[in-house]
């Protein structure tokens, strides 16, 4: 089942229509561009984003303005916990940041999938993502637990990575509390 929701986004001088929808196969290149331009995400190959748009469209949301992808959330249902969506990446084009699009994409993801739990991993220094997921949990009146998940021992010595903290947001209400 796919859904398309529209919401009006106020900008400085105009009101712009934002459409939240599942990705089409043709959105992979635009998703890669948004990820690349964010300069914050671990950038995957264009092939990976295109494959994600095909194989995980039910748990991925793109935000579109005037036919252009300006943001996305990629995720998947955890095989052992189908009520849980693991959010892989969240990105919003620089020109559209600060308008709540990322949280609205998460809202759309939860509404579309009917899940009650969202997980993601965030490095300790990524305060923007921490704020996003805290805002999301508050918005839904949900529990928000943070625990270590991946540490340096989980990554190869010749390809070190920052430790990743698991953010588990559970008890998500179908309707936001505010």
UniProtKB/TrEMBL annotation:
SUPFAM superfamilies, alphabetized: Acyl-CoA N-acyltransferases (Nat) (SSF55729)
Name assigned to this protein: L-2,4-diaminobutyric acid acetyltransferase
GN (gene name): ectA
EC number: 2.3.1.178
Annotated keywords: Acyltransferase, Transferase
Pathway: Amine and polyamine biosynthesis; ectoine biosynthesis; L-ectoine from L-aspartate 4-semialdehyde: step 2/3
Any one biological process term the GO annotation gives: ectoine biosynthetic process
Domain N-acetyltransferase, first and last residues per copy: 18-162
Signal peptide range: none
Family: Belongs to the acetyltransferase family. EctA subfamily.
Top enzyme class: transferase
GO MF term set: diaminobutyrate acetyltransferase activity
Matches recorded under Gene3D superfamilies: 3.40.630.30
PANTHER family, per the entry: L-2,4-DIAMINOBUTYRIC ACID ACETYLTRANSFERASE (PTHR43072:SF60), N-ACETYLTRANSFERASE (PTHR43072)
């Amino acid at each position: 089942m796919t859904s398309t929701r529209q919401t009006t986004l106020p900008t400085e001088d105009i009101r712009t229509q934002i459409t939240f929808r599942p990705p089409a196969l043709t959105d992979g290149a635009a998703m890669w561009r948004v990820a690349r331009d964010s300069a914050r995400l671990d950038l995957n190959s264009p092939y990976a984003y295109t494959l994600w748009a095909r194989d995980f469209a039910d748990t991925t949301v793109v935000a579109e303005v005037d036919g252009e992808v300006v943001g996305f959330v990629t995720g998947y249902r955890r095989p052992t916990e189908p009520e849980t969506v693991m959010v892989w990446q969240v990105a919003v084009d620089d020109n559209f940041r600060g308008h709540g699009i990322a949280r609205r994409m998460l809202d759309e993801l939860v509404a579309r999938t009917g899940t009650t739990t969202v997980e993601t991993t965030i490095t300790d220094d990524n305060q923007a993502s921490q704020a996003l997921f805290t805002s999301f949990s508050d918005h839904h009146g949900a529990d928000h637990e943070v625990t270590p998940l991946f540490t340096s021992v989980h990554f190869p010595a010749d390809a070190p990575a920052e430790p990743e903290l698991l953010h588990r947001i559970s008890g998500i209400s179908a309707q936001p509390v505010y």
